[in-house]
Every structure is written in structure tokens, then in C-alpha cells.
């Protein structure tokens, strides 16, 4: 499993948190198992391979960090979503941007450009070209204004 695949799985799990009453830890415990991956592999090739310990730790760090910092990350999305009401932003797009912003703010080993590029590439699978462009603009503005000072 590549880091990009692990990142995309973290986005799926971050998105799923919007629709469950499970805690982050309960969700991770139930989803990061070989049995869960085996079930999901029939629906999505992303789950063909279970994560190793390092990949599972990365997924856990992303999902847990995004959940812990959700209000902060959503504040940044709202701040840079010029002309958009936060409630209008698709939940998948929000999950993708939260993960990228979390990586940028809290995982210094991941270059900002890589976090943005991976977010945009993943978004292309799930969102319209207009939404992908919008997301790229938000993430670029976020890095220029909040990080590159």
C-alpha cells in the first residue's frame, strides 16, 4: 500500500465520521482490520491490501488529528472559501481538504506541495472539475497565508 492509498483511506474514514455515532477510536478499530478490508475490497480496489503497522499508524494519525482539529480546519476552509457558504461545500471535498490541511499544519515531514497535490489528485476521483479547482484554490491560499509567513 502506498502513502497515497493510506491517505485516501484516511479521507474515507474522516468522511465516514460525519455519519456514525462511533468514536474515532471505535471507527478505526472496526475499519483497520483485515476482515474489514476483505469485505470492502469487493466494492473498492483501494481496499485490496490491508495496511501494515506503519501505514495503519499514519491512517490513525490523520483520522484522529482531523477529528481533533476539525473546528480549526473547518475555520480555515470557511476563511478561504471566498464566496461560498461552508455548508454548501460537499462533505467529500471538506474531508479531503481537512486531511491536506492537517498534514500541512501537523506533519512537517510531508511537504506542503505534496499534501496539496495528493489532495487534488484524490479529489479528481470524487468531485467535479469545478470543485477540484475550488479546492486547489483554497489549499493554495491557505498555505500562502497561514504557513508561508
UniProtKB/TrEMBL annotation:
Keywords: RNA-binding, Transcription, Transcription antitermination, Transcription regulation
Single GO term (MF): RNA binding
Key word Repeat present: no
Domain NusB/RsmB/TIM44: 5-144
Pfam families, per the entry: NusB
Gene Ontology biological process terms in this record: DNA-templated transcription termination; transcription antitermination
InterPro entries: NusB-like_sf, NusB_fam, NusB_RsmB_TIM44
Keyword match Cell membrane: no
GO terms for cellular component: cytosol
Lineage: superkingdom: Bacteria
Function per UniProt: Involved in transcription antitermination. Required for transcription of ribosomal RNA (rRNA) genes. Binds specifically to the boxA antiterminator sequence of the ribosomal RNA (rrn) operons.
Similarity comment text for this entry: Belongs to the NusB family.
Protein name: Transcription antitermination protein NusB
Species: Oscillibacter hominis
Taxonomic placement: Bacteria, Bacillati, Bacillota, Clostridia, Eubacteriales
